[in-house]
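mind reviewing these tokens:
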Amino acid sequence: MWRYRGPMITAIVFVKADVARIPEVAEAIASLEGVSEVYSVTGQIDLIALVRVREHEDVATVVADRLNKVDGVTETETHIAFRTYSQHDLESAFSIGLD
């Protein structure tokens, strides 16, 4: 079980999967250590997995060594998040002080 111990690195992984096996592939990916969430989505990709780890090397371990090897995964594209905006942050950024 991963425990939060300070800043985390978040990677957003776009996953193309065998269409007939999307639910099984999603469950297998969700069970991987380091994967916090998996979403089934519409569009050019089938799944989005959120990977949260402490070190950049851990992204490679989770994605290249584990996620890419899940039976039914046909292609992945990984994006590293470098800044987080919460709803609160966005409201503050666009506030013009009319309170």
Observations:
- The mean pLDDT is 88.
- The first strand starts at residue 9 and ends at 17.
- The beta strands are 9-17, 35-40, 47-53, 73-80.
